[in-house]
């Protein structure tokens, strides 16, 4: 199934370097999600939450906030927002912390992802763009969150790859996608 994989914080809303608890959608992101859902995309959030492993936020708080977000998008007419989360730190040696591909594999084992027609959208080159690169799917960098920094002072951390498109924000990315696919 054609799928949009997407980062959470810095991409859909919230604090790009913090945890999920303060998450609120950026302007027009819900409109963007609706547009993508209406164009038949499966919507999959892939999020690194290392503060869970560090003990800074509990798994219960993460789950409660996630359920709140899913309910909010449902009220907006989007019934298919899925979440896949890596709770680990780098030292845990997991296979799911982006840019590793474990979250993709988990989502792919649930419903097969059509890689040719799928995209990753995110704000961090080193994790999100390299995640897409490691999977072998197309990618869009958004300039919200740490996106602008990813393009400038941190460009060397993901120099191996190029985004297929650079968007002001998630809504602009969804417009580009639905006009070009
Ligand atoms: Mg991010």
UniProtKB/TrEMBL annotation:
Gene3D superfamilies: HAD superfamily/HAD-like
Keyword vocabulary terms for this entry: Carbohydrate metabolism, Cytoplasm, Hydrolase, Metal-binding
Presence of the UniProt keyword Metal-binding in the record: yes
Name used for this protein in its record: D,D-heptose 1,7-bisphosphate phosphatase
Family: Belongs to the gmhB family.
EC class of the enzyme, as a word: hydrolase
Naturally occurring in which organism (per UniProt): Fusibacter bizertensis
PANTHER family tied to this protein: D-GLYCERO-BETA-D-MANNO-HEPTOSE-1,7-BISPHOSPHATE 7-PHOSPHATASE
E.C. no: 3.1.3.-
Pfam families: Hydrolase_like
GO molecular function: hydrolase activity
Major site of localization recorded for this protein: cytoplasm
Signal sequence residues: none
């Amino acid at each position: 199934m054609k799928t949009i994989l997407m980062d959470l914080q810095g991409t859909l809303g919230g604090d790009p370097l913090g945890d999920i608890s303060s998450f609120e959608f950026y302007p027009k992101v819900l409109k963007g999600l609706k547009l993508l859902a209406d164009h038949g995309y499966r919507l999959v959030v892939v999020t690194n939450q290392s503060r869970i492993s560090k003990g800074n936020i509990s798994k219960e708080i993460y789950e409660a906030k996630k359920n709140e977000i899913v309910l909010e998008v449902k009220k907006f007419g989007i019934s298919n927002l899925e979440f896949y989360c890596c709770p680990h730190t780098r030292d845990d040696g997991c296979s799911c912390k982006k840019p590793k591909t474990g979250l993709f594999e988990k989502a792919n084992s649930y419903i097969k992802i059509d890689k040719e027609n799928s995209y990753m959208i995110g704000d961090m080159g080193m994790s999100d763009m390299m995640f897409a690169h490691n999977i072998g799917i197309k990618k869009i960098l958004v300039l919200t969150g740490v996106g602008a920094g990813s393009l400038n002072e941190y460009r060397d951390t993901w120099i191996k790859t190029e985004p297929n498109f650079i968007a002001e924000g998630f809504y602009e990315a969804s417009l580009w996608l639905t006009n070009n696919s």
